[in-house]
């Protein structure tokens, strides 16, 4: 299956840093790229379905990674944590 997917889309999917810093935004980009590939007839309906499922799975993975990064302090303290005096 992966050999059938457009290289540009796979490169975007593999950009873990962008996914973790903006899970919803990057998933939207992946979805739009998938629909564009279908409109250009680069992929069939089955591949489109797989691409959309992978985009959603990447979004969920990135949300979990993003949450864990906040929890261990990689992004610094949030304003709410500063006001509450917690970390």
**How many strand segments?**
0
Describe the biggest sheet?
Answer: none
Structural class of the secondary elements? mainly alpha
- What spatial form do the alpha-carbon principal axes imply? elongated
Low-confidence runs:
none
Q: Report Rg.
A: 16 Å
In helices, the fraction of residues equals: over 70%
The chain-level mean pLDDT equals 88
Counted by DSSP, the helix tally is 5
Strand content: under 5%
Order of helices and strands: HHHHH
Quote the distance from N terminus to C terminus: 44 Å
What does this structure look like?
The protein has helices at residues 7-13, 16-21, 23-39, 45-71, 79-84. By secondary structure, the protein is mostly helical. The longest helix has 27 residues, at 45-71. It starts with 6 loop residues before the first helix and ends with a helix. The model has no long low-confidence stretch (mean pLDDT 88).
Q: What's the short version?
A:
The chain is an all-alpha fold and 87 residues long.
SSE topology:
Layout: H1 7-13, H2 16-21, H3 23-39, H4 45-71, H5 79-84
Task: Fill in the keyword field for this structure.
single chain, elongated, 0% strand, 87 residues, mainly alpha, 5 helices
């Amino acid at each position: 299956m992966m050999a059938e997917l457009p290289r540009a889309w796979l490169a975007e999917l593999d950009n873990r840093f962008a996914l973790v810093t903006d899970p919803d935004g990057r998933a939207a980009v992946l979805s739009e790229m998938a629909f564009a590939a279908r409109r250009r007839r680069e992929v069939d309906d089955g591949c489109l379905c797989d691409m959309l499922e992978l985009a959603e799975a990447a979004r969920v993975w990135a949300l979990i990674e993003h949450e864990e990064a906040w929890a261990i302090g990689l992004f610094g303290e949030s304003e709410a944590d500063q006001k509450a005096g917690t970390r």
